[in-house]
Amino acid sequence: LMGATGSGKSTFLEYATGKSDPSIGHGLERRTDRSRAVRCKYPREGGSIILVDTPGLDNPHKTDIEVMIEIADFLRKLSKKKVHLSAILYLHRVSDERMTAEDPLRNLKMLPSLCGQATMPRIALGTTMWSKVSLETGERQEQALARYWKELTSEECQLERFGDSVDSAWTIISNMHRKNSTMLSSEIV
After folding, report:
1. pTM confidence score
2. Does the pLDDT of residue 134 top 60, yes or no?
3. Given 50, 88, 156, 169, which is the most exposed site by the fewest CB atoms within 10 A?
């Protein structure tokens, strides 16, 4: 799970695992200071999966590059334990209507160097905060995000809507699981 601070990464993890985490920040302060892996049961197909919650990419105390390096180091350690990355869900607040120089999507440009160009089709863009906008506004923003993604990668974007529920989290995970393939590239291993 990747995205800006406040994009809903920890909340997504809470719904997916069914575990309430008092460290999840619902105010102005960021709460996830370092990457963490959480194993959870896959309710639809049995077995288990590991979800990784990562720090926000707009950390006021570290540059985005420093945060990305920390994430890459964490993924490298997981890889040594035979836990391989199969997909990335990049969460973005659908309520963020403007793309500015401070736009959290600028970090998408770093993903090919983090995971390798071959991983780009395995990245889904998840939109959050649907309750904060009208459906029309959300859909307009979603279309803009898809255009931005295509310009960046020349790939079609897998868009997912997170609706703050267990079912929504697992629908997204299931959709991404269908595209499952190991994608840790030589760039980070």
Report:
1. 0.82
2. yes
3. 156
